[in-house]
Amino acid sequence: MLWAGRSAVEIATAVRQGEVTAVTVVEEHLHAIAERDPRVGAFRLVRERAVAEAQALSKRRDLADLPLAGVPVAVKDNLEVAGEATRGGSTATAEAPARRDHETVARLRAAGAVVVGLTNLPELGLVAFGDSAYGTVRNPWNPSRTAGGSSSGSAAAVAAGMVPIALGNDGMGSLRIPAACCGVFAVKPGTGLVPPPSNDWHGLTENGPLAARVADLALTLSVLAADPTLSEAWRGGARIEPAPRMLRSVWADDDEMWEPQPPPSGPEPFDLRVAYAPQPLPAGLPMDGEFQAAVRGAAETLRVAGHTIVEHDRRLPFWLGPATVATWLARAAEAADGLDRGRLERRTRALSRGGRVLAKLSLDGERSRERWQSYGADQWFGDADVLITPALAAVPPRADGWGRRGLARNVLANVRYAPVTGPWNMCGWPALAVPIATHSSGLPIGVQLVAPPGGEPHLLGLAAQLEAAHPLVRPPGFAY
User: Fold this and answer.
1) How far apart are CA 89 and CA 130, in angstroms?
2) CA separation (Å) from 331 to 230, 350, 370?
3) Strand partners, 46
4) Starting at the edge strand that comes first in sequence, how are the strands of the sheet with 185-188 ordered?
5) Which residues are catalytic?
6) Please, what's the b/e burial string for 445-479 (b: 16 or more CB within 10 A of its CB; e: otherwise)?
7) CA angle (228 as vertex; 223, 231 as ends), nearest 5
8) Residue 249 and which of 163, 188, 235, 271 are 20 to 30 A apart at CA?
9) Is the peptide bond before 150 cis (omega within 30 degrees of 0)?
């Protein structure tokens, strides 16, 4: 049986039950990476030592209890993996290997996952593109188009079937943007749920999972959050306490076990108040008509599923856009501080220079961010449980050459195609990208689900209902 292309839930179940070894699973996925990644460029480093780590995993006494037993995972190359250099998409960063895993990586490994590689990202994770000194991450749906960013390689690796799950992070949409570009799921957790990156951009950035299936997304999020009640939240939009392990009955024969009834294979009905905003952007920022139609289609799917659906026709406040851009540039300046500017890309130098200029003028976006975080987001959001918006405003731009371009072209390109995600980093609310349709260009269309703090279970439950109505589609040439 081929295990590459299977879900994380299927793989972990089979490894726990002894149907397949972790070594076989990892070897198959390394073979898939070797065959598929030359077309995509998702990985900076493929870890051949993953096979030895899978062998060691097979000897763990707690193998039968590991929620991600033997599951291959790709990790964004700005999160520390012990024994590997963390380059962050730049040749200006340190070459020394990390001495220990980042906490999120440690939690994945403790749960039985095996890190098969480090994925590419734009330099210092500053933009929604996938090009860097280590190559260009190409969209598996169309290699001339960007995979998005900054968790570019993680999204492309999942979309192309090289891994079932991946780890990335999101400072202004860096999980949701590439997920929407590549047609996979990704969740940016709310503030405080998952340990953040070492440099969390003053609380803007959260670590989170990407996956091809909602059940895998929920399971991985539960491990990252150290919260087992999230692993089955996709079934009914609420946290579910894990069922205790069944013990052998004293009345059973030697080969007989009392087993609970298996849970339903699909999501269960529940009722939320869901608002939809096909065009949430301030006046002057256009929104692709097919993306607007996808939001309306998602709302109708959820109406049929039993939810109360209302239209949200208010646009985001105009002042929030410039504040979000200013905040982004200020963080770019901080990210580049202390690095050899001669080894940085033109794009990085330009973004960081712009951030320094704005900081000198006291235009770093902090006051507007505090306004939005303290009361603005809540007032604009209204009384819904969840809001549906487009995940992007335009189809992904072309993949190549952005690192050689300056400030104006990079800022304008990012704002034109991916302006919808940043507001929810500015306030720290959870948000989730859901692939839902195919654009006339042949690229996937994603919608964004947003909830107030603590709403991750609602997001997972709605994503599962949308997934049931719009099943997984692999990019052409990457099917199993």
Assistant:
1) 9
2) 31, 13, 16
3) 117
4) 43-46, 114-119, 72-76, 165-170, 206-211, 185-188, 431-438, 444-450, 386-390, 273-276, 308-311
5) 76, 150, 174
6) bbbbbbbbeebbbbbbbbbbbbbeebeeebbeebe
7) 80
8) 235
9) yes
CA distance 471 to 476: 15
What is the reported pLDDT for 61?
Answer: 96
> CA geometry: angle at 39 spanning 38 and 41, to 5°?
65
The pLDDT tens digits of the residues spanning 34-45 come to: 999 999 999 999
**Measured at the alpha carbon of residue 108, what is the angle toward residues 131 and 98, in degrees to the nearest 5?**
60
Percent of the chain with pLDDT over 70: 96
- 201 within 8 A of 169, measured Cβ to Cβ: no
**From CA 178, how far away is CA 151, in angstroms rounded?**
6
- Tokens, residue 125: 């994770």
SS3 category, 135: strand
Beta strands (DSSP E) in 9-89 are: 43-46, 72-76
Bridge partners (DSSP) of residue 431 are 188, 450
Beta pairing partners, 187: 432
Task: Copy the structure tokens of residue 251.
Answer: 């009345």
Instruction: Give CA–CA dist 312/67, Å, rounded.
Output: 39
Strand, helix or coil at 457? helix
Compute the average pLDDT of residues 365-382: 98
Longest dimension (CA), the chain: 78
Q: Measured between alpha carbons, how far is 158 from 104 in angstroms, rounded to an integer?
A: 18
Tokens of 53: 């780590």
50: three-class secondary structure by DSSP: helix
pLDDT at position 414 is 98
Residue pair 138/119 in contact (Cβ under 8 Å)? The answer is no
- Chain centroid to CA 147: 12
442 touches 205 (CB < 8 A): no
For 298-324, b/e burial (b = at least 16 CB within 10 A) is bbebbeebebebeebeeebbeebbebb
Token readout for 66 is 């590991």
Mean of pLDDT over the chain? 95
> Is residue 410 a contact partner of residue 431, using CB atoms and an 8 Å limit?
no
Q: Indicate the residue type of 382.
A: G
